[in-house]
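Title: Prediction job returns without error message
Component: structure pipeline
Severity: low
Priority: P3
Assignee: unassigned

Description:
Job completed but the reporter wants confirmation the result is attached to the right record. Sequence as submitted:
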Amino acid sequence: MNTQGKCKGKKMLICLLTGVLLSSAPMETLASKTGSELKKTGEKIDRLEEEREAAEDRVDELEQQQSNLQGELADLNGKLWSVTEEINNLEVQIGEKETQITATQAELEASIATKESQYESMKKRIQYIYESGGADMVAILFKSKSMGEMLNKAEYVEAINNYDRQMLKRYEDTCIQVSQKEEQLKQEKEELIAMEESMEVKKGEVDSLIANTKDSISAKKNEISDAKETVSDYDEEIAKMKAYEEELERKKAEEAKKQAEQQKKKPASTTGGGNVTANASDTAMLAALVECEAGGESYEGQLAVASVVVNRVKSSSFPNTISGVIYQGGQFSPVASGRFAVVLARGANSSCTQAATEALSGNTNISALFFCRADSGVSGTVIGNHVFY
């Protein structure tokens, strides 16, 4: 409730209290007005409590959304760690490929150098044979002591030439293989670099999602704070309305006290003892009223409330039926607020039903016609939180 509303409420209360002191209207009319105001106040409290419950549900919903976002953030952080770890592994693999490429390049250079050295050696031998015109080779052959020796020497020379050609071919093949290996390693390195770049893009996407999720969580926290503030506002408003309701209850008690004093001036009427004719519907109504007024009291207090209703039925100053007494205007605030109808619809508890049944059978424990809160200042018999007079 805002300040203006609070002032209006207080002004209304002042006007009501002033009316009690100055008005010459009958006490029944004043009680009816207070009862009507109590009904309006009770309805507003009920409405505020419903709205507060809706606001609490909104807080729960927002907190669940925040929890879900926290879960998403945890998943994203896990993905980020996984992507970062993969990037690190790729960097290690790229480094290893670079080392292999460097080693392969050195191997290729050595192979090329060996091939060139072999080629140069073979060229020199061939050049020597051609430049000497084959004379030295002929001399070597003719110096042989036998045909076998000559053939062996010729085969030896041929073997040297074949060896040179084989070694040259081997070195050439080695160079080709090393070169191919180098190309393969370079290709694998390029693939790893492409994978790393892809992972970097993915990492950027995950980073962006994490940032957005953190922003969402921050916004959700603000929403939760606002929603909790709304609940707090409802709590404050409900507390003010309940305080106002208590003031009205005290006012109603004062009116009831004066009404009781007026009743004393009237001819005495029979109260207490004897049976009151009642059916199952009357019992259900009386039990529901007892639960509304004294559901949290001892059984003695519940029976006392039921006794007041029975005493009124038997009094000439009140209606002569259970329903007439209960529904008499401005008498019972639960009836005015609507709480009585709720309890009646579902049925009262066993203790209150027993108290109603016992009172209707004539076993009343008090002769009073009225009751109110024990702290209202009214004198009478105090049972639990009520005073009966």
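Comment from assignee: result matches the submitted record. The first strand starts at residue 371 and ends at 373.
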